[in-house]
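Protocol step 4 of 6: structure prediction from sequence.
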Amino acid sequence: MTESGGRRFAWAVFGLVVLLLGGTMVASLLGARAAGTGGDAVEQQGGEVVVIGVPGLSWSDITRDSTRALWSLAEEGAAGGLIVRGAHVVTCPADGWLTLGAGQRAAADDDGEQDCQVVPEIVTGDDVEPSRVGDVSASIPEWDSWTSAAARRPLDAQLGSLSSALASEGVCVRAGGPLAALGAADQDGAVPRYATPLPGGSALTTYQPGVCDVTLLDRGPITSHDDLLTFDAQLDVLLRNLSPGTSVVIAGLADRDDTVGVRAAIIWRDTGDPGTLSSATTRQSGLVQTTDLTATILALAGAGIPDSVSGLPVEIQPSDAPVSERVSALRDLQGGTGAAHALAYPVLGVGLVLALIALAALVLTGRRRGLQVTGLAAMAFPSAAFLAGLVPWWRGSPQWLTLSMVLVVLMAAHVALAVGGPWRRHPLGPPSVIAAVTVVVVGMDVILGGRLGLISILGVQPVTAGRFYGMGNVGYGIFALSGLLLAGFLAGLLRSRPMARRTAACLVIGGLGLLLVLVDGSPSWGADFGGVPSLVIAVGVLGLAAAEIRLTPVRVLLLGGAAAVVAGALMFVDWLRPAGSRTHLGEFLQSVIDGGALEIVARKLDQSLGILVRYPASWIAVVVLVAIVWAVLAQDSRLGRRLVPLWQLPMLRPTVLSVLTALVIGWALNDSGIAIVGIGLAVAIAAAVAIGAALPQRQTRVG
């Protein structure tokens, strides 16, 4: 590729990226989204509220023929997937009920040791209106130890928030069954009205219409198909006895067989329309959290929602689609998110090992073309992992094989595009194509609501309730690093001669940098606070290099100030929105106003450092990062001399410095920031392998 051809290629790639991302932004602002909210939040309608907890209940359990009562509720009501995450990764039935009662992630243990088979002890007391229904008061002996444990955890769940909030409004709450008592207990662990099921009987039989405004019923975990059929028959009987105007909430409040996944949630109101559940906390159609159900119960009962409840009332998006279509979509959501969570580490681990073996073999045999293709394929893996969500690979059997085949095909397509044109003749051409595709794929997904990220092995992993929308740490590592590499590569092509075309290079870096910051930091899209400062500073470092302006301590401080201003502006814009519509950007600014910012920062720092303790393998990323920083800064060192051939390409060394800046600052400002370092290094090293293998042979010899 000639020098003029390289410049034309650079402008063409830059224009396409700006056109695609910019066009998607405009479409998003005009209302185009692949996922999100937009329905009407549930409100009080005057009748009773009956909540039935069915730990482990999933959409794969519910069919038209075998569970007719559940199917009927889904057909006439609003259905969604439920994130049941408590204080631990695996949520036991008791944890799920405590989380419902607290409105914040909680767990029924005080030492971190879980036993999902244990049903906590309930001590019954005096009769309550014995002549009417035979209810008794009750208490939970372990309540104080659970409360102390909750106070020690970062989220500081206030156990009993649901019952206490209802009682403060004069709303009667009743529990049927020992697990439901955990949700109905007040902040002192007292259950004002408790109905004991008959020996061997179901808690659903304790329901009596007109006794209380809110009734919580513990069905117990679903352990077999026969158990499911029995529950459906009991549910059918209960539905026939409801008072007019009653709202029914069905919730699969816990995981099943120690398998983490999305469970089933249904809200049925006899005056409501069928539809799909969503929540402002997830910003995903068909996905709500247990804490959202806490807020929903309070809203249905006409009670205020205390600050201790982190969820928001669910929204119902009306739908005319047949129930079979809605259930099928929820099964796909359940299957895709669950399979992505289960296969993430195995697929990534096996893929890494295979890549390292291939690289070692190719280095030993001197197959430079093979090295370039392998580097490009590894660089394309993140984009392929997101695009795989367009294919329902989780329906295949075995799932790991189907996913692997889809990834291989998509990576091959990326590599074919990268080496399929005249740009392949320049070492920076093919990696520029891969980086551009990655930026567009991840960026467009984030702008349109992040649906692909939900079901990607490199996505936000919603079943662990870490994040449901926007730019997660892994996504940021992919997006930011690919974007910085692309900006540096294109600037290098535009500055193919020393002192040439500084303005063009700076324009490309500034334009791409602006897009990266907007996608990552906008409250409507990425909503990522920690990534914005690192991007602003990294883009500044790269831009100064393109303009041939030396980086001095004063300029470093100015870049830091600019990063703080940009991040603060994005937080302020989000803070101006109503409280229920804010992301964590606006909530953090509110915490600053309320004086709780230091606590949040300390919690994030503790989480970030705790990963290095809990997961010793994460130190590998730290060691590799330190080694690369040393090699780049100390060019005369043994490691540094290995990289010298790369620096003969214009702008490549400043690009690497920019990338390292983004990794270090991104790690420091994000909880679980080591994930940014790991995936970012993988992308950068893959690009370096592809570029190094494409350099002329004489340039790769190091003395």
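Step 5 (inspection) to follow. Residues 323-365 form the longest helix (43 residues).
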